[in-house]
What we know:
Order of helices and strands: HHHHHHHHHHH
Amino acid sequence: MKSKITIEEARDLLEKYITQDYLKNHSRETEVIMRGLAKHFEEDVDFWGITGLLHDLDMDVISGDYKEHGMRTCAILEEEGYNIPEMFYAIKTHTEHLGHLNIERKSKLDFALSAAENITGLIYAYVLMRPDKKIKDVKVKSITKKIKDKTFAANVDRTLINDIEKTGLSRAEFIEIALESMKSIADEVGM
């Protein structure tokens, strides 16, 4: 079993297991936000980015059966020859809100992954409602307002976004990192 994964290996796994473009985009968005957060926290940028890239690797496999979500991703990675406990724990805890695992977020990595993968949905929904459908001019205050509006992108878990503050990062700082990170791949993900 390998205890490390390269970005090339991670991208190959994403291509192998994820077929839907919107899931590939969500995975890339989560990856770049995680990289931005790792840089901010002076953590391993590649490790955090890869964790973000692979967090939903099981989505096509589980076919909507969320009782397996997270656990199945870790099983896939083990089947592919990896054993990365810190990554596996964060991937499992990003589903804490589903209530199917008796596991809770503890580390900065855990809180960052849950927040990053949730903020992508809110930002994406906001960009779609803009006349130009572009992220380039989206401001922190606009996303902050949408977080407060629980009817907007109602499936996005605001608790997981707001819990970023448990890392010592303010919500506004987090939104700024998320926006700048997603803007860096805007052309790639069609924003």
